[in-house]
């Protein structure tokens, strides 16, 4: 009896082993699982969505209550339903960008990266999958956010000078541009997190690139300031979703191309460091 | 099967691993010994491609780790205890790793049971004790049903029951024909499970040997004998490979190369009375200390305090 169980428990080692294999799709599935199995993902995505919708509606409500009166804020003077309902983009980009940094840099700060790269020692599939999975999730959240914000925002400001509807030229393009911008900010976040391998470092560079550098641009000599500033990530990104464009800004298409360029640059840096450095 | 050839890792001026040559064979437990900072963890990280060698190479089952189609099926590694995101549950951590290889869910459940994590699998890994974290790392190492299992200091933080569990696990894995490579800075721990030993110090190979040979090289097993007629006993015991020492005029002799049993039988055969007959086994710990101390002395640049420190850490 005992010998019988003993022989059953030690099967011949070589044959009948399952044929496992790492594939691109499987790495994507793994990154999808990793993303949704952390509470921080749900919280931060929720915040991003909340910022987009709530601040857009607050801006629309504030405009609606003060338009035509002498109390109208200067900032609101040239507002449209699009610009009002996209008011939350600035804050949502922080939430989505920071979560992007956490997706990659969080693996380094916790040591998870050793497990990840031991499973996928070719390494690059991990980076591409993280960027793709999180970029698409951020895009989806942003799409929901901007369309909901505009749907209700445009209702709030109907009957005011800012009122425009979905059918107005450029509105849908603007909203799609804003969502695409936020999705790409998420990708840049993942790239920066992977490049710097530090949550604090990644967030600092992200905030600097998107929010502080444009302020510094005013220190440049005015003769060539516009030539530089419109190619900055923040300005190029803004031209992706602005309804109107003047001579100092890029066209939406050009803005998208430039912003894609910045994204590719960040990803290339991340890929280089991932392949070259020990973990 | 792990095969290291002239494996070298330098960090700036410091050489962490220095031209290591060794082979870890299937079917046995191979102990990887050395004081802290000897380069054990660095070597293990190079085996699974987390660190790139500065020179030389290391292959697993004939190929570099990264060239395998299903790396987790070749080598299951427990590196540092913290290779886990603390916010993720044990189950979903393992599931995410399994997904990369198409390893089925039932295998995830299986390794959770093997590691004894069934009751905490849905809890956040950050809330785990050191021992639980170690068990989770071992569950991850076994996930791909790997040919080679490599564990870095697996008994760290485990309670006595856990230590026993690891010992049994290692020997049963080796009995199934797998390659088992386990590092430790505690000779006493490794000696209980390992047949083969690779000893390193300061990144250099100090010994590639078996437990028995190491003991023999360190002075072997000495038998203490006290007898009425030491001079005659010396003559009786004399032979090739046998060494008898003792102070002149003393009744006590130290014999190497013969077992206590053999000495007792020979003495009885010749009618020599014995008062004492006892084996004095050279402790493995001592043999290991001697080896690593030599390594410290060999690198003459060390100051006394540093040497004392590394010895202190060894102990």
UniProtKB/TrEMBL annotation, chain A:
Record keyword RNA-binding present: no
Signal sequence, renumbered to the chain: none
Domain of life, per lineage: Bacteria
Transmembrane annotation, as ranges: 42-61, 81-106, 127-152, 172-192, 199-220, 254-275
Keywords: Membrane, Transmembrane, Transmembrane helix
UniProt-recorded name of the protein: ABC transporter permease
Lineage, highest ranks first: Bacteria, Bacillati, Actinomycetota, Actinomycetes, Kitasatosporales
Automatic annotation (TrEMBL), chain B:
MF (Gene Ontology): ATP binding; ATP hydrolysis activity
Domain of life: Bacteria
Keywords: ATP-binding, Nucleotide-binding, Transport
Stretches assigned to the ABC transporter domain: 2-227
PROSITE patterns named in the record: ABC_TRANSPORTER_2
Pfam family, one: ABC_tran
SUPFAM superfamilies, per database record: P-loop containing nucleoside triphosphate hydrolases
Family the entry assigns: Belongs to the ABC transporter superfamily.
Name of this protein: ABC-2 type transport system ATP-binding protein
Organism in which the protein naturally occurs: Actinacidiphila yanglinensis
